[in-house]
Amino acid sequence: MTKVAVLGEPIRTAGYGLAGITLLAATTAEEVRRQWRELPADVGIVLLTPAAAEALGPLDISQVLTVVLPP
Fold it and tell me: Which GO molecular function annotations are given, in alphabetical order (predicted)?
């Protein structure tokens, strides 16, 4: 089964853990890029905070569906 993850600042993403979403905490652009490179194989949807989306820049979305959360 495909899992959902949320990537970004812990203060913005912590609540998603209550819904069973995988939390990928990252506070710097480097951490965002590392978490992206190390996405678990079973993750098919990634929610990105605006800061995480900016840190990643244009993505190759052939692997996963991405959604940028509102500011």
Answer: proton-transporting ATPase activity, rotational mechanism
